[in-house]
Specification:
- Chains A, B: GO terms for molecular function: DNA-binding transcription factor activity; transcription cis-regulatory region binding.
- Chains A, B: Keywords: DNA-binding, Transcription, Transcription regulation.
- The structure is a homodimer of 180-residue chains.
- With 180 residues, chain A is mainly α.
- The first copy, chain A, folds into two domains: 4-45, Arc Repressor Mutant, subunit A (Orthogonal Bundle); 54-174.
- Helix content of chain A is 75%, strand content 0%.
- Chain A contains eleven helices and no strands.
- The first copy, chain A, has helices at 4-19, 26-33, 37-43, 47-60, 62-70, 75-93, 95-102, 104-111, 116-127, 133-151, 160-174.
- In chain A, helix 1 (4-19) crosses helix 4, helix 1 crosses helix 7 and helix 10 runs antiparallel to helix 11 (160-174).
- The model of chain A has no long low-confidence stretch (mean pLDDT 95).
- At the A-B interface, helix 10 and helix 11 of A face helix 10 and helix 11 of B.
- Chain A binds a DNA duplex (18 and 18 nucleotides) through residues 4, 25-27, 35-39, 41-43, 45-47.
DNA sequence: GTCTATAAGGGGATAGAC
DNA sequence: GTCTATCCCCTTATAGAC
């Protein structure tokens, strides 16, 4: 059986995805678990701690990606590695990714998070140094597209592996990395 | 001078973009306008009416796009027309587009909106009939990428025309419409 | 158009029993 | 780990004066 703590996070995640963080009350989380608010407060001292506990593992998983990428020898190999890893991450989390990316409450917490700098690192690994406006737009569209496509309900019929393959192919084409 | 009604919508839009709809109270809107809540209620009977008044013009502007596109003769011309128009729309609204697209409250209202079917029409104009998984992923990534890139703060230094040009070029490449 | 005042309800959060 | 009960604040919304 999952721990009470895990059940809170699971219920919270579903509700955050559906209603956003601000649109989700502790009462709603408790109701979905079939317990009272007080039981939820026994696991987490504040609502903010619940949000942090939901996003933490994803943000922490970004650090090893940047570290591994930095060890590759060529810029092309680094780009390719980051892209592969980000596609994996987005598909692994699918519904969650959109919440993490767009919820205003989450955004504010992410901005203050220790892992925040890693995100800029990953973007820079993709753009290369001193990128042109064209390249910056390309990377922004891929980043946004990956997150959106992962969350897109009309694609929920596609199995993870199929989605991964297509997302990677489309991203490579968008970034003009087809032949590298 | 702008009407009180317009000032409400302008204040609401900024706050929705920053905090989301659920994270924005009527008190915050009133404070930003320098009036009291009751003054806001004099313009709109409910908070939901404010949200609707914010999104209505954008949704209504989708209908003529689909209509004009349908009059083009070839599928390629229709795709190209939709893409041009959507890029224009996204750039025209930039920050707003992300709120409109991802806020859970807005999404629920959009789903019930008369213009809702137009969105599926536009997607179908882009995918063509009976699209493959690959094509569906392509279109989902472009749609998400356009909205995200429009809202991306790191691209806010790019002037509208520059952004438009790059978004269109990148979208065409992603959709493999380079040579059509 | 804007105000004060107020109602009714829900939000986050705490105390203490079991 | 979960409960009941409660506190205080903020929320949406309304009534009526200016």
């Amino acid at each position: 059986m999952r721990t009470a703590r895990e059940r809170v996070l699971s219920a919270a995640l579903e509700l955050f995805a559906e209603h956003g963080v601000s649109g989700t009350s502790l009462q709603m989380i408790a109701d979905r678990m079939g317990v009272t608010k007080a039981a939820v407060y026994h696991q987490f001292p504040t609502k903010e701690e619940i949000v942090l506990a939901v996003i933490d593992p994803v943000l922490l998983s970004l650090t090893p990606i940047a570290a591994s990428a930095a060890r590759r020898r060529t810029p092309a190999a680094r780009r390719r590695y980051v892209l592969d890893a980000v596609v994996d991450l987005v598909v692994e989390h699918r519904r969650l990714s959109a919440v993490l990316s767009f919820d205003p409450v989450v955004s504010r917490l992410v901005r203050q998070h220790p892992s925040m700098t890693v995100i800029s690192e990953l973007v820079e690994l993709l753009t290369g140094p001193d990128p042109s406006p064209a390249t910056r737009v390309d990377v922004a569209m891929v980043a946004g597209g990956l997150v959106m496509a992962g969350a897109e309900s009309s694609l929920s019929d596609l199995p993870d592996e199929t989605l991964k393959t297509h997302l990677l192919k489309t991203s490579l084409r968008t970034l003009r990395l087809n032949r590298s």
